[in-house]
Design brief:
Elements lengths: L4 E5 L2 H13 L4 E5 L13 E5 L7 H17 L5 E4 L12 H12 L4 E4 L7 E4 L2 E4 L2 E2 L18 H8 L3 E5 L1 H4 L3 H13 L2 E6 L4 H11 L4 E4 L1 H13 L20 E5 L4 H10 L5 E3 L2 H5 L3 H13 L5 E4 L4 H11 L1 H21 L4 E5 L1 H11 L3 E9 L2 E7 L7 E5 L8 H8 L2
Parallel strand pairs: 1-3, 1-4, 2-3, 4-11, 5-10, 5-11, 9-10, 12-14, 12-15, 13-14, 15-18
Antiparallel strand pairs: 2-16, 6-7, 7-8, 16-17, 17-18
Bound molecules: adenosine-5'-diphosphate and the ligand O=C(O)[C@@H](O)C(=O)COP(=O)(O)O.
The site of adenosine-5'-diphosphate has 24 residues, from helix 12, helix 13 and helix 14.
């Protein structure tokens, strides 16, 4: 297989979001969990999205995993590798976007790396280097309260400069609006001024097309699904890839009980749980009890077992920002995140042992913990549920065919869970 595009995603929900975009744009795409083993049979594809769980781990480890994935993708023919980050630039001053950028840039021999998290379909736009979530600047959006990486600065030139050894410049919207050649010229100018990265404005899909065409002249780019859209359209326009009509896999219905696990504390997820509570049973875990032992997880499984033959069930650890911050003050941010993720992963394993094959997970870190626990090696893309969230069909793995949806905390409307369950046969 010779890849036309290689992608590395810093979390699993982000990976399925990007894979969904590439497939929609006509690239035959699969999502792998980490670097697949040689014995995993993969279909012929144009693009592979290697999912990593490196958004919130120590920077040196994140760098090592991203570099190994980059080498694997390039060995399979990928001339261009995109590093997929969150459309809300989820990171902290110690990384991991900057350190990964620095190392992949050095490995690719790139001068100035184009960086844009814009994803207009979900309301993420960048203007004068400032990221907007809908109408709100990033630092006034719900991301200011994220449990792991609260975002307090909307100016991405500043944010990235704090994380990266490289100087960071800006390709502003006026240049982007003039098209790919103008972007390439600006990148060359930024390179000669000593910049190693360039935050690039984008508001409309036409901006992303120009950005994609310019990025393909380089070996590395960094961004969210909007950049993926631009790269896919660029590859097709250049004739490098033939457009394939999206053939969403429907597969044989897996049937059986269905469950939702939510570890996201994002506002969108909190609203989705509240809405679902009107029509299906929801168990709200006690996070304090989760921090203090295993019994809460066992009780959750017993609760689910009593109900799931009749109805889909939702099990959620999600809390509001005040409660999240209280718990973190008591036990420490990393410890809380890790323990709750692992508790939800243990519940997922228990549910699958009890027959669940249709599973929705809300939250990027949470999805990573769950999918790792279930040891699913890869996914084929199914139908899109909402922008950024596809149905995923497992490839390989010890549990046979499973259907999952990995929902980014911030994505989807209030009725997301019911809508997803309705199409996850
Ligand atoms: N009640 C809670 N209090 C504190 N942290 C929580 C709680 N519930 C879940 N978490 C943690 O919050 C983080 C949410 O991140 P993630 O799953 O990536 O969601 P999102 O997609 O919204 O960013 C996880 O590390 C999760 O374990
Ligand atoms: O780009 C995005 O917004 C998503 O694809 C994404 O990465 C989501 O991350 P989580 O909110 O942590 O799921």
């Amino acid at each position: 297989m010779t890849l036309s595009l290689g992608c590395i995603a810093d979390d699993y929900t982000g990976a399925s979001d990007l894979a969904n975009t590439l497939a929609k744009e006509g690239l035959r795409t699969i999502q792998t969990i980490g670097i697949p083993t040689d014995d995993l049979a993969l279909p012929e594809v144009d693009a592979i999205v290697v999912s990593l769980k490196i958004r919130s781990i120590a920077a040196p480890e994140a760098v090592e995993r991203a570099r190994a994935s980059d080498r694997w993708l390039r060995e399979r023919g990928a001339d261009h590798v995109m590093y997929k980050i969150c459309s809300t630039f989820d990171s902290t001053d110690s990384g991991n976007i900057g350190p990964v950028l620095d190392s992949l840039r050095a490995d690719a021999g790139e001068t100035t790396v184009l960086v844009t998290p814009a994803f207009p379909q979900t309301g993420r736009t960048v203007y004068q280097g400032n990221l907007f979530v809908g109408a709100a600047p990033l630092n006034e959006s719900p991301l200011k309260d994220h449990p792991l990486n609260p975002m307090h600065d909307a100016n991405l030139v500043r944010v990235l400069a704090r994380q990266s050894a490289a100087a960071v410049g800006l390709v502003d919207l006026a240049i982007v609006a003039r098209g790919a050649e103008a972007i390439v010229e600006r990148l060359a100018q930024l390179a000669s001024d000593g910049n190693g990265a360039a935050i690039t404005d984008a508001v409309f899909e036409s901006d992303l097309e120009a950005i994609g065409a310019a990025a393909l002249r380089q070996r590395l780019s960094i961004g969210a699904s909007g950049l993926g859209l631009g790269l896919a359209r660029g590859l097709i326009a250049a004739g490098t890839v033939r457009r394939h009509e999206r053939t969403a896999v429907y597969g044989k219905p897996v049937g059986g009980p269905a469950a939702v696990l939510a570890g996201s504390c994002s506002q969108a997820t909190l609203k989705q749980i509240a809405k679902a509570e009107q029509t299906m049973p929801v168990l709200r875990l006690d996070p304090e009890k989760l921090m203090n032992g295993r019994e809460e997880a066992q009780l959750a499984l017993d609760w689910a077992a009593e109900r799931m033959a009749r109805t889909p069930v939702i099990i959620a650890s999600s809390s509001n920002p005040v409660d999240v911050s209280r718990l973190q003050t008591r036990y420490g941010r990393d410890a809380v995140g890790k323990v709750i993720e692992q508790s939800l992963a243990a519940i997922a394993e228990g549910l699958v042992e009890r027959g669940v094959r249709r599973l929705i997970v809300a939250g990027g870190e949470t999805s990573g913990a769950v999918v790792d626990r279930l040891a699913i090696p890869a996914f084929q893309l199914g139908q899109e549920i909402v922008a950024g969230v596809p149905v995923l069909h497992s490839i390989g793995g010890r549990h046979g065919g499973m259907v999952l949806a990995l929902k980014s905390g911030n994505f989807g409307g209030e009725s997301f869970f019911a809508d997803a369950l309705a199409i996850m046969a």
